[in-house]
Structure formats: C-alpha cells, structure tokens
Amino acid sequence: MKYSYPVSLEPQDDGSVFVSFPDVPEALTETDNAAEALAEALDCLIAALGGYINDSRHLPKPSNKKSEQRLVSLPPLMSVKLALHELMLEHKITRVALGEKLGVSKRAIRELLDLDHSSRIEQVNAALAVFGKEIVVEIHDVETS
User: Fold this and answer.
1) 65, 85, 89, 133: which could join 128 in a potential S-S bond, CB 3.0 to 4.6 Å?
2) Alpha carbon separation from 127 to 17, 45, 68, 117, 119 (Å, rounded)
3) What confidence score (pLDDT) does residue 142 get?
4) Is the Cβ–Cβ distance between 6 and 68 less than 8 Å?
5) C-alpha to C-alpha distances, 82 to 2, 64, 71, 119, nearest whole angstrom
6) How far is CA 94 from CA 18, 100, 109, 115, 120, in A?
7) H or E stretch covering 139
8) What is the Cα–Cα distance from 22 to 24, expressed in whole angstroms?
C-alpha cells in the first residue's frame, strides 16, 4: 500500500490555513500561514495514524488526490511500520505472538509500531518476513502542486 494521503489546505479570513485529510477525519489542524501548512499537515497525519495503531484499528485507505489538493507522503520508515500494523491486523497476530516468532519482547514490537521511535529498518523487515513480505524501495519523481 502506498502511504500518501491527499490533504486540503483552506485559507481562512484571518490568514491562517485550515488543514484536513478527507480520508483521515482525525487529522485536522490549523496553521498560522501557508508556509507552515504542509509541515504541520505531516505532523498531524502522523499523530492521527499513530492513534489508529494504538487503538488496533485498520488504517484508512488513501483516496485519489483531487486537483485542488496536495499529497502528503509519509517517510519510508513510518510507511513500513504502518504496513506491519496492517499485516498484524489482517492475520490477527498480537504483539506478543509476533514477539515470540521473532524472539523479542512485546516492548520491542511496540517500538517497531511506534511511529515516533527510530527503529532500524532491518528490524521492521524481519517482522514483515514473518508474513512473507519484504521491503522494496522505489524512487519516484517528486509531485509538484
């Protein structure tokens, strides 16, 4: 799954910008100006998706970007952590069970799923291998506007 979500940036009368993600209703914020909007949008999206992980809920699927929207892509490490979370839910495997398969503690699995923890990519790849998956990197052109 590609972890890039369309974001709506709505200028307000006072010069601030209201930021919302149509696919992630929990991801809402307001910034002082347009220059800060995309950076704030990413932080807001990360926090909201982290809530999905904490609540053991499936992540919302990103819709196609509309012409008036921008696209916010999650950093690679966060994206693979989100993929791991989804696989655990799909296969109904708990953190304890995954830890046992990998020979690590529940805490280590919790850190693998923590979007703010700087896990090593090799650790996440080992966890994905339990599900018969591996990380493959692709480089794409940056989307403008």
Assistant:
1) 133
2) 39, 24, 38, 16, 12
3) 75
4) no
5) 10, 19, 18, 13
6) 37, 10, 10, 18, 21
7) none
8) 6
Of 9, 63, 1, nearest to 41 (Cα)? 9
The pLDDT-based confidence of 145 (bands split at 50, 70, 90) is low
What residues are paired with 73 via a beta bridge? 4
pLDDT tens profile 13-41: 998 999 999 999 999 999 998 778 988 99
The structure tokens listed for 119 are 């896990």
Query: What's the whole-number mean pLDDT along residues 124-142?
Result: 91
- Chain centroid, CA 105 distance in Å: 23
Q: Under a CB-based contact definition with an 8 Å cutoff, are residues 72 and 4 in contact?
A: yes
- What is the pTM assigned to this prediction? 0.90
Average pLDDT, integer, range 51-71: 95
DSSP string, 20-55: E-TT-TT-EEEESSHHHHHHHHHHHHHHHHHHHHHT
Instruction: Return the number of other C-beta atoms located less than 10 Å from residue 110's C-beta.
Output: 14
H or E element at residue 103: none
User: What is the spatial distance between Cα 36 and Cα 38, in angstroms, rounded to a whole number?
Assistant: 6
